[in-house]
Specification:
The protein is an all-alpha fold. Helices cover about 75% and strands about 0% of the residues. The protein is built from 6 helices and no strands. The chain has helices spanning about 10-20, 25-40, 45-55, 60-75, 75-90, 95-105. The chain is elongated.
Length: about 110
């Protein structure tokens, strides 16, 4: 799996091929594609894809977390905090999220 190996461009080529072959997009695939674009520093594309994944599955804390991290990378602290809090509400046992939120609130 190219994405698991950090081969972001190869993973994106795989997504293109999957679509051309009529593959059904799932929220998980959309989210994984967003991560690839994020790793390639194409934050605009990653944000759009995360928005699509969240629209389909708004109760997935990972997509909210990834959106928060993306906002942090772009300097949007308020947006990051909002997304991370939403993620934490869905996954209240996640200590990493709790620490990230505490750090942003300082």
């Amino acid at each position: 799996d190219a994405a698991a190996e950090g081969q972001w461009e190869a993973a994106l080529a795989g997504f293109r091929k999957f679509r051309q072959e009529g593959g059904v997009e799932t929220p998980e695939l959309i989210s994984l594609e967003a991560v690839c674009w994020y790793k390639l520093e194409r934050y605009d594309v990653a944000e759009e894809l995360l928005g699509r994944a969240i629209a389909v599955r708004p109760d997935d804390p990972l997509n909210w977390r990834n959106l928060g991290v993306l906002h942090l990378r772009r300097g949007g602290r308020a947006e990051a905090l909002e997304a991370l809090v939403r993620s934490y509400r869905l996954d209240p046992e996640n200590d990493d999220l709790r620490r990230m939120i505490e750090e942003l609130r300082r």
